[in-house]
Design a protein that fits this description.
By secondary structure, this protein is of the alpha+beta class. 27% of the residues lie in helices and 27% in strands. The protein contains 4 helices and 7 strands. A hairpin with a 5-residue loop joins strand 5 and strand 6. It is elongated.
Length: 193
Amino acid sequence: MTNVDNITCDQVPYLIEELMKLGAKNVHVVPALTKKGRPEYIFLIDSEKDTLDSLAEFMALETGALGVRLLKTEHYPFDYELRKLCLSFRDENDLPLWEGEIDIKIVIGKEQKPLSARVEYEELKELASRVREAGLKLSMYEIKELIEERALKGIKDFTVNFNDCGPGLDIEPLSPVSKKLYCKDKTKTCFGN
């Protein structure tokens, strides 16, 4: 950890990218205020012991930091696996507008049970662009939610029922989404329909 009060916000992305290239496992930057109300950035850099010297020297070179603090912590890691989700965006006439596959990261708990499903950002960004090119008006957030919900439904045993929500909540039902996710290729890992 080190705090820096003599850089601008424009330098922060550069520093993060370069620290990652030098072997940082992760970098978090927290904006803060220091003495006399000066703005500063607190850098929290996850690192293995063998990259510590080069990361610290880089921070001294780029920011003038007078030193770094070593915070020794324990990491409680989870296993994960990547699975391919085959999907198809179709219109109301069931005609394909876009078909393809995307990697889903499945986080596995200590009892080998799936805990969560996440789409990687870079793949999601590319998929959102392709879906827009196909003429669908879906945000990246909506695509992420659709895919992760489908993946969770495939790896966990649950159903969601919105029909019985109590008084007043079912007066005006939500209209169904006309764009549907389908699992097309049965030879690949698919997460149920």
